[in-house]
Input
Amino acid sequence: EANERFAGMMGYEMPEILGKSNLELATPESADLILNQRSNEEIFYEVVGKRKDGSTFPAEVHGVQVPSQGKLVRVAAIRDITERKQAEQGLRDSERHFQRLAQATFEGICVTENGVILDANEQLARMGGYALPELLGRPAIEFVAPQSHEVVRWNFLHGDGKPYEILGLRKDGSTYPVEVRGHPELWDGRTIRVTALRDLTTRKQAEEALRESEERFARLA
Output
């Protein structure tokens, strides 16, 4: 037996699909997987379905054995998961694209969820004197000097995405000026925060040198 939905999914009319082996409705590569799933347990697995016209599609199978008319039969619910697979591939492509962009920039980039670093680029690690794995899974606030904690919290709750300045905390305990720009993003149904950080040390040193030069000039004048 089968329902109209299953027949349509496979590209058949109802009378055509009855009596067919389930192995005829999947690719040869899926045959061993299907045969190995024959057990008394409730099971979930994925196969590649094969339609009447020879085209294929990814399918999720939920199977269970039940008694019927004095014998055991297998009842299986089959779901076409093409859209889900495409979405997963799109997400992977997006993640790879982010990684390429993040590694190409001179700014430090980090992705956080609930304040914890999920991902970051090498530049951010170098800025703080860390190896990249040392950043992952840790609260981002650990890499901020204590005197800047309130600034970070306020901008997290009330900021409008405009850049602001804080003091970053390096692994050796020294601090350095950092420009921060962060904004929330929706990712895989979750809200994450993408933050770009720029080391302002060189700029601050240049500004200080310029002030000192202007002060000397003013005294001479």
